[in-house]
Amino acid sequence: MPIKIPDQLPATDVLRKENIFIMAESRASTQEIRPLKVLLLNLMPKKIETETQFLRLLSNSPLQVDIELLRIDDRPSKNTPEEHLNAFYRQFDMVQHRNFDGLIITGAPLGLVQFKDVAYWEHLQHIMTWAKDHVTSTLYVCWAAQAALKLLYNLPKQTRDEKLSGVYHHDIHQPFHPLLRGFDDTFLAPHSRYADFEADYLAQHTNLDLLATSEVAGVYLASTKDKRHVFVTGHPEYDAHTLHQEYIRDLAEGQQPPIPVNYYPNDNPDNKPRASWRSHGHLLFSNWLNYCVYQQTPYDLEHFSEDRFTKDD
């Protein structure tokens, strides 16, 4: 089944060229089917690139998914045309009275910024709190995972001395957990962050299920018992060239970034990088849509009730 996106969204042509099954709004409106309603709160600067990456992962499911793009505020963007934002993105006040099956909150380049200094911190807290009563399952990616740990568990910001950048091996735990269905015992996933997610620290201060960890990168995947909050500390959505672009950007800004680990052939930035994480990235999002969203959400979203979820806090 396809994902449903606006007819003129730039991602439409990109995904069609990749033979990804998408459905324009004009065709979807003629089908008698209840698609999953998923919000994508895009906090990344290059919104067109990021939305395409996430839509690609959401497309790998037998479920029809109706995507709505959400922006955090109305401040002008330096990296995305305003006409694109006005055409395809909604403000929160346009959706806050509705219920949704799923919400994805992307990462943001705010690794060294204290939460209190983030311009939209209070608004983000408001959206995350709203989601508890209006969204079946929320997926927090990278920086958003750290922000959610602060909001849900009051954990202070944990920052590494040096940026974590590269593609790392991870081991799975609880192999029969729904989010890990079909996963190999070990798998690769990219990280690009200053945030620190040590397994022992999270085990001591939360009751999360720690599902996948790396000896170097720490916790990669975690979930609340009821699967209503899922934390992904890496970037399964990244394209093959994304880490390279970040590395070149940091060099151009006069920084001395570490060469992304296990990314370039022979660890040589002159060599073309190759993606080694796509299969598990697609599988993770497919599992989230199926087991955390579709299997849990009510058919009639107007009758959304938090009481039907197992309490774990």
UniProtKB/TrEMBL annotation:
Tell me yes or no: is Amino-acid biosynthesis among this UniProt entry's keywords. Answer: yes
Q: Which UniProt keywords apply?
A: Acyltransferase, Amino-acid biosynthesis, Cytoplasm, Methionine biosynthesis, Transferase
Provide the primary localization: cytoplasm
| Pfam families, per the entry | HTS
What are the transmembrane regions? none
Pathway in which this enzyme or protein is active: Amino-acid biosynthesis; L-methionine biosynthesis via de novo pathway; O-succinyl-L-homoserine from L-homoserine: step 1/1
Q: Give the E.C. number(s).
A: 2.3.1.46
State the compartments where it is located.
Cytoplasm
Which residues are responsible for catalysis?
Answer: 142 (acyl-thioester intermediate), 235 (proton acceptor), 237
Q: Which CDD domains match?
A: GATase1_HTS
GO CC term, one of those recorded: cytoplasm
**Residues at the site labelled Important for substrate specificity:** 192
GO biological process: one example? L-methionine biosynthetic process from homoserine via O-succinyl-L-homoserine and cystathionine
For molecular function, the Gene Ontology terms on record are:
homoserine O-acetyltransferase activity; homoserine O-succinyltransferase activity
The reactions it catalyses are: L-homoserine + succinyl-CoA = O-succinyl-L-homoserine + CoA
**Annotated site, Important for acyl-CoA specificity, chain positions:** 111
Q: Which SUPFAM superfamilies match?
A: Class I glutamine amidotransferase-like
Query: Which of this chain's residues are annotated to bind substrate?
Result: 163, 192, 249
Record keyword Transferase present = yes
Which function does this protein serve? Transfers a succinyl group from succinyl-CoA to L-homoserine, forming succinyl-L-homoserine.
Q: What family is this protein classified in?
A: Belongs to the MetA family.
> What is the name of this protein?
Homoserine O-succinyltransferase
Gene for this chain: metAS
